[in-house]
């Protein structure tokens, strides 16, 4: 199948978005925005992204470590509190193996249309099984069946083979009203060792406010 030509190197180098307070209609991010804590501001920013119509405003780029090398992928944040950011996955997936070997991660929420980002990094722990059970019970049945069907991150011959596995699982649980949580599936929480709020501004003099060790401080861009 043919494809249109993409941008050349000169075009790529020239790609640029100009940020400004006038453009985003928002005052300058400052330390006092965190007077009620980082969680309150984070929740507000996700809400702003949702109201702006941004697709999957709770999506984050999660970075883990594999043999000393970074690996990233997008996952969905499913909860936040003072203890950190929670997401769910297959514990036998690539990210699960990486977190078992190096239980530390970072995540970035890029809300490009708003000219904002949020970053968190810290140690990672599995959530209590009761937390997993509560979230699992609220997932669509199709997503539950998919979690049982997929050996996440492992090779498979074709999509047809994957759909065949789904059909097998669907038949297995056809008469089961409440599908159980797979034994290798659950949640992780990234503790807020460091969090940072970023707001784009003109001349690349962006606003960056970091919380580390209980201190709220402005960083140079």
UniProtKB/TrEMBL annotation:
Pathway info: Cofactor metabolism; pyridoxal 5'-phosphate salvage; pyridoxal 5'-phosphate from pyridoxamine 5'-phosphate: step 1/1; Cofactor metabolism; pyridoxal 5'-phosphate salvage; pyridoxal 5'-phosphate from pyridoxine 5'-phosphate: step 1/1
Domain Pyridoxine 5'-phosphate oxidase dimerisation C-terminal positions: 185-211
Domain Pyridoxamine 5'-phosphate oxidase N-terminal stretches: 48-171
Keywords, sorted A to Z: Flavoprotein, FMN, Oxidoreductase, Pyridoxine biosynthesis
Gene3D superfamilies: Electron Transport, Fmn-binding Protein, Chain A
Xref: Pfam families: PNP_phzG_C, PNPOx_N
Bound cofactor: record note: Binds 1 FMN per subunit.
Biological process terms in GO annotation: pyridoxine biosynthetic process
Sites where the protein binds substrate: 16-19, 78, 135, 139, 143, 204-206
Record keyword Hydrolase present: no
Catalytic activity, EC: 1.4.3.5
Cofactor: FMN
InterPro entries on file: Pyridox_Oxase (IPR000659), Pyridox_Oxase_CS (IPR019740), Pyridox_Oxase_N (IPR011576), Pyridoxamine_oxidase_dimer_C (IPR019576), Split_barrel_FMN-bd (IPR012349)
Coiled-coil regions, chain positions: none
UniProt catalytic activity: pyridoxine 5'-phosphate + O2 = pyridoxal 5'-phosphate + H2O2; pyridoxamine 5'-phosphate + O2 + H2O = pyridoxal 5'-phosphate + H2O2 + NH4(+)
Assembly and binders: Homodimer.
Classification via HAMAP family: PdxH
Main function: Catalyzes the oxidation of either pyridoxine 5'-phosphate (PNP) or pyridoxamine 5'-phosphate (PMP) into pyridoxal 5'-phosphate (PLP).
Alphabetized NCBIfam families for the sequence: pdxH, PRK05679.1
Recorded family membership: Belongs to the pyridoxamine 5'-phosphate oxidase family.
Name the record gives this protein: Pyridoxine/pyridoxamine 5'-phosphate oxidase
Organism: Mycobacterium heckeshornense
Lineage, highest ranks first: Bacteria, Bacillati, Actinomycetota, Actinomycetes, Mycobacteriales
